[in-house]
Amino acid sequence: MKDLSGARTGFARAGTPMKHHFDQPPEGFRILPGRLDRPAQEALLADIRAVVEAAPPYRPQMPRTGKPFSVRMTNCGALGWVSDRAGYRYQSVHPETGRPWPPMPQALMDLWRAVADFPHPPEACLVNLYDADAKLGLHRDEDEDEFAAPVVSVSLGDTCLFRLGGLARADRTRSLRLSSGDIVVLGGAARLAYHGVDRIYPGTSTLLPGGGRINLTLRRVTPAP
DNA sequence: CAGTATCG
DNA sequence: ACTG
């Protein structure tokens, strides 16, 4: 049964008298018109293989409960996003090896420069590894101290069902498929929009030998100098 | 105080 | 554990 209360913000019909409504996705959300071609995807994948070699993917845990994520993660760049019983945070070292995160590959620095429209380089690239059953619940990227910079996301491998909401958790959401090579920018008002990954469609890409999906999210964490 | 990138 |  649909929620007919109407007492929600979201992708409301135009002309609704309530505040905080929009009939379009939040301003600043865009899927770049041209996805990365196969050679570019393969080059990025080679970079990520090196990252994974130096900083092995691990399974984060939810704050307080310790409940494991289905998604495995690692990072590259000066800072990496981690989650464990102590909470969400950015830190400069891998939580299991204690070593600094491997450097941000040049291709990702170049990609950021090309699409972010922000005058300072990214500090963190979170690498999310999805197997066929992995999901990421609706959330906002709000652990950064710099919201003027966008979040830039690159999809590699199997297609996923991506869900985009609004600025409040209860806002209406839209679902869209993201396929290998797609580049998404969450900037402007959409920088703090709720989003998540509802499902992976196995066998929809030949990029990753074992199947699955890799998502790279580039972020500026500290205020621009 | 409840909620959270969990899971349903 | 930390934010809102």
Automatic annotation (TrEMBL):
Protein name: Alkylated DNA repair protein (DNA oxidative demethylase)
Gene Ontology terms: cellular component: cytoplasm
UniProt source species: Kaistia hirudinis
Domain of life: Bacteria
Residues where substrate binds: 81, 88-90, 143, 169
Binding-site residues for 2-oxoglutarate, renumbered to this chain: 128-130, 213-219
Keywords, ordered alphabetically: Dioxygenase, Iron, Metal-binding, Methyltransferase, Oxidoreductase, Transferase
Matches recorded under Pfam families: 2OG-FeII_Oxy_2
InterPro entries: Alkb, AlkB-like, AlkB-like_sf, Oxoglu/Fe-dep_dioxygenase_dom
GO biological process, one term: oxidative RNA demethylation
Residues at which Fe cation binds: 139, 141, 195
EC number(s) from the headed UniProt entry: 1.14.11.33
Cofactors demanded by this protein: Fe(2+)
Top EC class of this enzyme: oxidoreductase
GO molecular function, one term: oxidative RNA demethylase activity
UniProt domain Fe2OG dioxygenase: residue ranges: 121-222
Cofactor comment text: Binds 1 Fe(2+) ion per subunit.
Region (Disordered): 1-25
